Amino acid sequence: MAERKVRVRFAPSPTGPLHIGGVRTALYNYLFARQHGGDMVFRIEDTDSNRFVPGAEEYIIEAFRWLGIGFDEGVSFGGDKGPYRQSERRDIYKKYVDRLLNEGKAYIAFDSPEELNAKREATANFQYDARTRGEMRNSLTLPAGEVEALMAAGHQYVVRFKVESGEEIHVDDIIRGDVVINSSILDDKVLYKSADQLPTYHLANIVDDHLMEISHVIRGEEWLPSAPLHVLLYRAFGWEDTMPCFAHLPLLLKPDGKGKLSKRDGDRLGFPVFPLEWHDPKTGDVSSGYRESGYLPEAVINFLALLGWNPGTDKELLSMQELIEQFDLTKCSKSGARFDYVKGQWFNREYILARDNAELAPAFLEILERNGIETSPERAAAVVGMMKMKKISFIHELWPLCDFFFTAPRYDREDKFTRKNWKEGSAAEMQELMTLLEGLDDFGVESQKAAVDRWAEENGKKPWNPWRVALVGTGKGPDMYELAAFLGKEETLCRMRRAVAELG
Ligand code: GLU
């Protein structure tokens, strides 16, 4: 077979915010597409109108924009294989449903929900399939005239796919190999419902993958059970030659590895399971997002990329470009990937350390503003630069470590650091230091350091800890010269004078 152009799709149903597992799926599709110079399609699978949630589609688009996962075609991106929203493709699906009906590969069923329930109660493990379809009310059992009459009278019906039993179905999966199941375990899946004149997920999914020339279906493990049916549908339409390759990604597991990751794990342990904050339009509930929690998008990408795949080296910090180059779908794990959110925090810390301080300043400015501090982007960036190596994973963790840069400390004799370091002669020593500093024309780090180090050396002084008490009020903060230079001469001397007066 000739090499096909790589075309992948991410096809969410807009039933709520995008779960972080969905983001990982989209990312793997993106990496694969970019690696092969292929296309990435964004399709909205909204054929289940009961589960439609307003705002979900916009949310998903915004999440990918934030994360830097780009699409080439699809809802909001355009393209020549649209429309890309399934609810706008009714006529297309109807044609294909009719084709299966005409060819005897599907049939019409009139069984009401009550009748189906009665059947389920009467028969253990009832399944609508080759063994039972003969006992049901459908176009295979009713005379043709009655079928027509029922339809003409407006009776609701569904179209079911006629699955022949006893056949081995092979799903060729890039990650899982040859997955074989027997068709007897499948039921005659509903492909179309007259009630809303819409196809179900299965039919719409296959027709669209075919018409949109999708070459690879990369999706979560939860869709693996649907894959045999999808193979049968491809065959029923005679599209075997363009059947996509499948890759079912490993499940994301709870942080302790026991069971599937859920929203409740996030609530319980305090980490987001959604890319962006989500406001539930029905309940008004707010769920936290990675963006609003202070993660950098690059950190989220790097973290997610390594959940289910790794480059086979020790290198963990990988840019999007490196991921595109190194990603290997065939090396994804089959078994679930533990959602180690602490590792996610570590990634964020690493990306903050590597990031330009000026780029981090806006986020810090916002936090300062919330704490009533007004300052310039330059000063915010300077503080970030002095303090970001202090074991923080998020910019908002800087505030309690950095308040003294912007507000004068309160002195507390009971503070442990103060008790230990503000001693008998400290006030006198600070007086001397103040005189020395006052005489400096250049209050920059180098100039202070030269003068103070010499004075300390010559006089056998160790002024740094009491000086820290005076400027900070306790045992935290950066290098003293950097701090004093940031505060400036006037503020530095003012704080020292107050410390001497209050601590004595
Ligand atoms: N609409 C499905 C979903 O919500 C798509 C599954 C697939 O990729 O085939 O994930």
SSE-based structural type:
alpha/beta
Largest β-sheet summary = 4 strands, antiparallel
Q: How large is the radius of gyration?
A: 32 Å
- Give the number of DSSP strands: 15
Give the CA-CA distance, first to last residue.
88 Å
- What is the count of helical runs? 19
Heterogens: glutamic acid
Shape type: elongated
Q: Provide the helix percentage.
A: 40-55%
pLDDT averaged residue by residue: 96
Low-confidence stretches: none
Order of neighbouring strands in the sheet with most strands: 4-5-8-9
Percent of residues in beta strands: 5-15%
Write the layout of secondary structure elements.
Layout: E1 7-10, H1 20-35, E2 39-42, H2 56-67, E3 73-74, H3 90-102, E4 106-109, H4 113-122, H5 144-152, E5 158-161, E6 168-173, E7 177-182, E8 190-193, E9 198-199, H6 201-211, E10 216-220, H7 227-236, E11 245-249, E12 252-253, H8 263-269, E13 278-279, E14 286-287, H9 297-305, H10 320-326, E15 337-338, H11 341-354, H12 357-370, H13 377-387, H14 399-406, H15 416-421, H16 426-438, H17 445-459, H18 464-472, H19 480-503
Parallel strand pairs: 1-2, 2-3, 10-11, 12-15
Antiparallel strand pairs: 4-5, 5-8, 6-7, 8-9, 13-14
Helix pairs in contact: 1-10, 6-7, 9-11, 12-13, 16-19, 17-19, 18-19
The chain binds glutamic acid.
The site of glutamic acid has 7 residues, from loops.
